[in-house]
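Hey, I was hoping to borrow your eyes for a little while. I'm sending you its amino acid sequence along with the backbone structure tokens. Take your time with it, there's no hurry, and the full record follows here.
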Amino acid sequence: MIHELQIRVLPNIAASTATIKEYVSREKGIDARTIKEVRVTKRSIDARQRTIFVNLSLKVYVNETPDDQPFHKTEYPDVSQGKKAVVVGEGPAGLFAALKLIELGIRPIVVERGKDVRNRKADLAQITKTHKVGTDSNYCFGEGGAGAYSDGKLYTRSKKRGNVEKILNVFCQHGASENILSDAHPHIGTDKLPRVIENMRNTIIGCGGEVHHQTRMTSLLINGDTVEGIETVDTETGLEQVFRGPVILATGHSARDVYQYLHSSNVDMEAKGIAVGVRLEHPSKLIDRIQYHNKEGRGKYLPAAEYSFVTQVDGRGVYSFCMCPGGFVIPAATGPEQIVVNGMSPSNRNGQWSNSGMVVEIRPEDIDGDPVMKMLEWQKRVEHDCWLQGNMRQTAPAQRMCDFVNGKLSYDLPKTSYAPGLISSPLHFWLPSHVGSRLREGFKDFGRKSHGFLTNEAVVIAVETRTSSPIRILRDTERLMHVRLKGLFPCGEGAGYAGGIVSAGVDGERCAEMCAEYLVSRQ
């Protein structure tokens, strides 16, 4: 018999299957010897009061052993003889699009401008050592996309738009911890996600698909009103190659050369709102003490604490974004003469610092310029200004939090996780006024809501700009195909239709389904 239970327990009880089993036996009057297995199906922490509780949903197997695995496995057939579709980009949208195409009997041809997920590491290390950013292999470009080495958080609010559970199950099938199926804010971790991505790639190749790294798309093959494939160049050898088939365009939110090409080719696009701000870094022990209402911090049984803040200042949202407990701030630029920061966490989240993006909503009507490209161009100017303030290196301009709020230059800066280093800078002076002024008011509000949060122990690091795409490539809402060009399926974050790993994966699957329907319709 299977009992489905909801329990609310102290962290020490929720810490292991053994203690949960003991609690269920005692509180529910079930003989422990008859409990063959306990599975946690949902887990969340309630830290609203001084006593912290963990909410658990359970499946308790009494006098029977589960005959299935905790996740649902997807069958991927051999598609080596199937019709072809081209997938541009091997981030989450591209990976899940390729896997879904295989499910549907289509042979995916995946092209990725960056290196494979393992060989990217050397290029990431060079950013810190030499302060030089590779334009095709960096924290944003390469197998796995921006999420591979910038945290691997799987939390999303996009459940109405697709099968989120399916995405999580596919990750588990390829080596992710089964905890992501139950945690309220699931997280794989930058130390474990690369292997999961490798396994996904191996599935694609093992089923007859192709994956081409260091292969950058240079143009679409357009015949009248139909996209029939792409032209590419090998970024190492310069070899040009053509791949034919309908195109799922999943290039990520930082592929500015793609946007420039599409704009010059009169492909229908529009400017899209973004959020811009800073990375805010606190000592993780301080965040633990604040969030868990305990001067001792999180103790033995609780994870590194998270937070979420949102407010309105002068008609625009100010909010925390991509919170990384026990994590690191990283250099996420994709080219020369720009500084961009982001955050990441390993799976155990046990670092000395915790950080989050603190950003301000920017709408197209807030910026002057070209109707399509103005948000991208403004984003570029802010990043270039930041680079100038950082002594034209990847040394990030920074300011203590209270100094930023009070308009004072910081004469020294706290220790930081940001490996290329920080330089004291008057962010309050040179950040765009409609960003800096709103951030300052937002920080004051967050400090009132959470005593101790507004502190000079925290450091404000500039500049966080790549929260989402500054452009939306227009597509039909039903067929997900470009509004004018048949056979082109703008997809994921880069197309302006997703906002994270899971939502990008969901969008990749949906685009693959529509691409398969398109191929059938052309038979």
